[in-house]
Amino acid sequence: MKRGAFLINVSRGRLIDDEAVAAALRSGQLGGAALDVFTREPLDAASPFWDLSNVIVTPHMSGDDGGLLTPLVALFAENLRRFERGR
């Protein structure tokens, strides 16, 4: 991929090499990533993806539209406001 490109994976975790992606994110080869799926799920607490500031990790729900999205967005927004305030 072009240096600085962003990777979005909402399909299957095994399509990408998690270790290679983490290394590319750390080195700047990848500018960022939004990852909804992983090789092993749930994502291990020791995964480097949790600590990378250029990664958005979502809970493997990118395709869910069973009426759950609206309350989840509200919950996320509230948690983001709390995070911004250090809470």
Structural class of the secondary structure composition? alpha/beta
Strand content: 15-25%
Question: Termini distance?
Answer: 37 Å
pLDDT below 50 for ≥5 consecutive residues: which ranges?
none
| Number of helices, counting only DSSP H or I runs of 4 residues or more | 2
Question: Largest sheet, if any?
Answer: 3 strands, parallel
Biggest β-sheet: strands ordered side by side in the sheet: 1-2-3
Q: Name the shape in a single word.
A: globular
Determine the mean pLDDT. 90
| Topology, number of strands | 3
> How large, in whole angstroms, is the Cα Rg?
14 Å
Order of helices and strands: EHEEH
Q: Could you estimate the helical fraction of the residues in percent? A: 25-40%
Keywords, separated by commas or semicolons:
single chain, 87 residues, alpha/beta, 3-stranded parallel beta sheet, 2 helices, 3 strands, 16% strand, globular
